[in-house]
Specification:
The complex is a heterotrimer of chains A (239), B (99) and C (723). Chain A has 239 residues and is mostly helical. Helix content of chain A is 59%, strand content 0%. Chain A has helices at 2-25, 29-49, 53-78, 91-94, 97-115, 169-176, 181-202, 223-238. Chain B has 99 residues and is mostly helical. In chain B, helix 1 packs antiparallel against helix 2. Classes of the chains: A mainly alpha (239), B mainly alpha (99), C mainly alpha (723).
């Protein structure tokens, strides 16, 4: 059983990396988006196998369900693809790839020597052992608040390391609304700002129409001319 | 699965995402590559959270979810506007902010 | 999981206990033996936050929606939130009384605690936004909310028709919120938040009529002077954190609950002395003591309710409260206490002498406040914390009453503040007169008014405490003499005798409040009594000035009749481990105590007799003799001991000179400008070259960022940084 889940982790890891490569290599954005979706679902599997159940569920709902669908929707709405097909890659960017290889090497060298290669410790199964002289939640599955701090079972931080609690909605939620309540509130303000910003950016005032004559699409060949003229303007502005 | 293998997966995903940002022209793909990098960081957080049996890393992942959601919402809104302006989403078209 | 506070307190108390046992073995304090300090009894509550948030809500509503609410709405929000807060505070204090019952507090301190949210958790530094109501905070809470409510009510009448009506109430509510943070803060950081908040509100309200340049300047002066004190306060706070690893006064006091001289080895005495002195610098700024008192008289530029609430009853007593809060620190820091008592006594006398000759009614009361705060610091320096808090409370009653009374007079006299144009107002405004008389008797220390008990306790402790002395007593007694004199001088010049009135053609350029009197279009007839919203607070405060003292009847007076010293017993749990013992030769000398009591009453009586002679007895000529015979003394007092001029020539002039001649002409123009211009031209040329890297291509930016990451990782991996 243990071996099977570990093997599954490697399989999901391979799928996640393959999905990521697909995003970078696929020429059409919609294929890239589907690859990324695939990668994210694999990551959700990894999270579930790492006992982060809430995160796994949210990965499926938020990333795969909401964010990626928005991206796919925008790709379809704008009907992209064919226009950029012949110019998928930047030549200048390809020259940076050795740099990335070096980065991967350094990350592996630097951080793995610190992190170590130990497997994750097994989660506790039985009752919680309290430190001497301090009351705590001993049984995390009986629906009774043993230490009388108004936190029952998994919602009590005493139960954080127990198998039936680790990574559950209750346990993460108790953390989120406990010591991290201020970041939590700030995150909600950020979301609100995001909503307002998105509406302001895309919404049109009543009566305002789509520009009737779109500016001419700039072909790759004409870029040099356009950039040349704007460069001249910029130099003037700088002086 | 030992911690270092999980971290290597995270690093590979991160580097693949960075490569996407560097080499692709299409701005939507660039944005998706950034999402992939964020996911790599999330994986590292969850791995450490499991290794240390501590929920703080998972709370951090939730925060990153929020930031990613806002980023995509705003980013897509900006992309739509950019497309309206130039009828293209190639990075080569948008380089008027040069020094 | 127990509350953090209790855990910390227990841990520190445990270590302190060990240290004491160790110290006793080393030959210290063997006679007293180790005291095992009883940990505070803590009970959680959820109402404390409501008490502080109600005024904040009021401030927000009045501040943002004031114009739409209309006058009635502003009144309702401004006074209603404070009234609710005051009612809640009574309920909480009743809960606290329950908690003090037998079986609950096993001899230790006790209080209600509420943790709102974790504020700053960085490494070992833990500061929660937590509130704590113990007996000491309860006294302040009741004073702040109830006197605050009365003054809000009074403001309805006083500020009627002012264009900034809603703004005024918003500031006033914000002030109450800050003051409650200060009073209820469970750690010094929350207290400091309130400390700075009240400073800000004070600045905003002094300069409330900011169209007048003088008012804005007075606000600035208060702000800058307070900044000097706040600097000391912040340093003292850091020092305490460095020593104790916590900023909770409860934990600090608990760790210091040992006999004097047997401090735990982890707490060197010099750190306590230094921390106490630095904190006292902060208290000097906020509570207007020498040398930082100069802002308070100028602060009278604000509307009179502000003077009553902020610059008499509550904010300026914050320094006294802070010293009482950290009684453990000041208990051990004996040298710092000498500084406190000397500064307190000197301030009490200096300010009282200046008050003798001022003609502006609010200026006299302002110097009186400075002087009375000096009295409180004498009690604090003598180690009689409960006595200082007692005087703080009675002072809040009678000084608020005096300021509100003066406001009533000022309104009736169309914002004329010069007492030389008053006189005989008793006939026109009887309520104001009687309440003012009560409060004056209280501040002069006449039996049985409130001030008699509290001031007499201070005088007694000034001579009988181990940290006091005869000289301190003499200085404070002289200050008490001056107090009775200048207060009755106000009564004679304002309420008694003939009404002189403002002469025709006399402009309103005397009062600092001249800017606002366009909207007080009363007919310039006889002065009239103020509306009920103003007289009711006056009457309540007048009655409190009469009976407030019975909360703290000293044992020597009440003991025979079985009348307990209520306030003293109530505060005992807070101060039990830190009260400085009286001098053994004095402690039970009742004859001496009675004698001194009679002496202070006699001095006050003599003073009142003198004022009758000068203003009431038809001996007007005598008044000029003083000015003629010793003009230098009169000039000295009239010019406030030339302290402002001294600061001007010693601090300001050199500062301005150095700033202009050295800093501006040489440092700024030659060195800094040269550097800046050089840097600018260098940057311009470098930017022209390097700007080419900014080619506007997002992919290239990403490549450069990756290169940066590689360099950072090379540093980390290659040099082992951070591993």
């Amino acid at each position: 059983m243990m071996d099977f889940s570990v093997a599954l982790l490697y399989v999901f890891s391979g799928m996640a990396v393959a999905g990521g490569l697909g995003l970078v290599l696929c020429k059409h954005p919609i294929h890239g988006a589907i690859s990324l979706l695939f990668s994210m679902l694999s990551l959700a599997g990894i999270y579930a196998l790492l006992d982060a159940h809430l995160i796994a569920a949210l990965q499926v709902i938020i990333y795969a369900g909401a964010i990626m669908i928005l991206v796919v929707y925008i790709i379809m709405l704008l009907d992209l693809g064919s226009a950029d097909a012949q110019t998928v890659y930047r030549k200048a960017g390809l020259m940076g790839l050795p740099l990335l290889a070096l980065l991967l090497l350094l990350l592996g060298q630097g951080m793995i020597s610190v992190a170590g290669d130990a497997a994750a410790p097994p989660l506790a199964q039985g009752p919680v052992v309290c430190p001497p002289g301090v009351a705590c939640e001993t049984d995390c599955g009986d629906g009774v608040d043993q230490d009388g701090d108004n936190m029952t079972d998994c919602a009590d931080t005493d139960c954080a390391g127990v198998a039936i609690c680790f990574g559950t909605v209750e346990a993460v939620g108790a953390n989120l609304l406990g010591p991290f309540v201020l970041p939590f509130e700030i995150a909600s303000v950020l979301l609100l700002a995001g909503i307002v910003g998105a509406i302001l950016l895309t919404g049109r005032k009543p009566g305002e129409l789509e520009p009737s004559v779109p500016p001419p699409a700039i072909q790759p060949g004409s870029i040099a001319d356009a950039s040349g003229s704007s460069e001249a303007q910029d130099t003037e502005g700088a002086v | 699965m030992p911690l270092d293998h999980l971290l290597i997966v995270a690093f590979v995903l991160f580097v693949v995402g960075a490569a996407g940002v560097m080499v692709r022209r299409n701005l939507i793909v660039v944005l998706m590559s950034i999402e992939l990098m964020l996911n790599a960081v999330n994986l590292a957080f969850v791995s450490f959270s499991r290794q240390m049996v501590d929920h703080d890393g998972q709370v951090m992942v939730l925060m990153i979810f929020v930031v990613a959601a806002v980023e995509v919402a705003i980013g897509m809104a900006i992309l739509v506007n950019m497309y309206r302006q130039k009828r293209s989403l190639s990075v080569d078209v948008f380089h008027s902010m040069r020094g | 999981m127990q509350p953090l506070l209790a855990q910390t307190a227990q841990a520190i108390a445990a270590s302190a206990g060990q240290a004491v046992a160790h110290g006793a073995g080393g030959g210290h304090g063997a006679a007293e033996g180790p005291i095992v300090a009883v940990a505070p009894t803590v009970e959680a509550t959820s109402l404390l936050a409501v008490v502080i948030l109600l005024p904040l809500l009021g401030a927000a509503l009045n501040g943002f929606l004031g114009k739409r609410l209309g006058t009635q709405g502003v009144n309702l929000v401004g006074c209603g939130t404070v009234a609710l807060s005051a009612l809640l505070s009574w309920k909480l204090v009743l809960d606290l009384v329950q908690l003090s019952g037998p079986g609950h507090a096993a001899g230790g301190n006790f209080g209600l605690h509420q943790n709102l949210f974790p504020w700053i958790h960085v490494g070992s530094f833990q500061a929660d936004f937590a509130l704590w109501l113990d007996p000491l905070a309860a006294v302040m809470l009741l004073v702040v909310t109830n006197v605050g409510f009365l003054i809000h009510l009074y403001s309805i009448g006083y500020m009627k028709g002012d264009p900034g009506y809603a703004r005024f109430f918003a500031y006033l509510n914000l002030f109450l919120f800050s003051m409650l943070c200060l009073v209820l803060g469970d750690n010094l950081l929350v207290l400091f938040l309130g400390w700075e908040g009240v400073g800000l509100c004070s600045y905003l309200l002094i300069g409330f009529w900011f169209e007048d340049r003088a008012n804005a300047r007075a606000g600035k002066k208060a702000f800058v002077t307070n900044r000097v004190g706040d600097f000391g306060f912040a340093l003292g706070m850091m020092m305490l954190f460095a020593v104790f690893g916590t900023l909770e006064p409860q934990a600090i006091n608990q760790a210091l609950a040992v006999p004097q001289g047997s401090l735990p080895a982890t707490v060197p005495l010099w750190t306590l002395e230094a921390a106490a002195l630095l904190l006292f610098v902060g208290a000097c700024g906020k509570s207007a003591q020498i040398p930082l008192y100069i802002w308070l008289p100028d602060a009278m530029a604000g509307p009179t309710p502000v003077s009553a609430l902020i610059h008499a009853a509550t904010m300026v007593t914050a320094g006294v409260y802070m010293v009482a809060r950290l009684n453990g620190v000041f208990f051990h820091a004996e040298f710092a206490c000498y500084v406190v008592i000397v500064v307190g006594a000197s301030t009490a006398l200096l300010a009282a002498t200046i008050g003798l000759v001022q003609n502006d009614i609010k200026k006299v009361l302002a110097y009186s406040t400075v002087s009375q705060l000096g009295f409180m610091f004498v009690a604090m320096g003598a180690g009689a914390w409960a006595v200082g808090v007692f005087h703080l409370m009675t002072h809040a009653f009678f000084k608020a009453c005096l300021f509100l009374g003066s406001g009533s007079v000022i309104l009736a006299m169309h914002h004329e503040q010069d007492m030389r144009f008053y006189g005989g107002l008793k006939r026109f405004m009887p309520t104001t007169h009687w309440t003012f008389l009560f409060a004056t008797l209280a501040i002069a220390g006449i039996f049985p008014f409130a001030g008699f008990f509290s001031k007499d306790e201070i005088l007694w402790n000034a001579i009988a405490s181990q940290r006091g002395g005869t000289l301190i007593y003499a200085v404070v007694l002289l200050a008490a003499f001056c107090t009775a004199f200048y207060m009755f001088r106000i009564l004679w010049m304002t309420f008694w005798g003939e009404h002189r009135g403002v002469p025709e053609g006399h402009g309103h350029d005397h009062g600092a409040e001249s800017a606002d009197d366009d909207h007080h279009h009363h007919a310039h007839g006889d002065p009239q009594e103020s509306p009920w919203t103003m007289t009711v607070p006056l009457m309540v405060l007048g009655v409190l000035s009469l009976v407030g003292g019975f909360l703290g009847v000293p044992a020597v007076l009440g003991g025979h009749f079985g009348f307990p010293n209520l306030l003293h017993d109530w505060l005992h749990p807070v101060f039990q481990y830190s009260t400085v013992a009286l001098d053994p030769t004095m402690a039970h000398n009742h004859a001496m105590e009675y004698g001194l009591m009679a002496l202070s009453l006699g001095v006050a009586g003599l003073s009142i007799f003198l004022t009758w002679l000068l203003w009431g007895g038809g001996k007007d000529a005598l008044r000029d003799i003083f000015a003629e015979k010793s003009p230098w003394l009169h000039d000295l007092l009239w010019n406030k001991w030339y302290v402002d001029e001294l600061y001007e020539s010693v601090l300001l002039k050199p500062l301005v000179f150095v700033s202009r001649e050295v800093l501006w002409r040489i440092v700024d123009e030659v060195i800094i400008d040269g550097l800046v211009n050089g840097v600018a031209s260098f940057c311009k040329q470098a930017a022209d070259k390097m700007g080419r890297a900014q080619d506007g291509d997002v992919g290239n930016y990403a490549t450069i960022m990756v290169a940066g990451m590689v360099v950072l990782l090379l540093v980390i991996v290659g040099f082992g940084v951070g591993t």
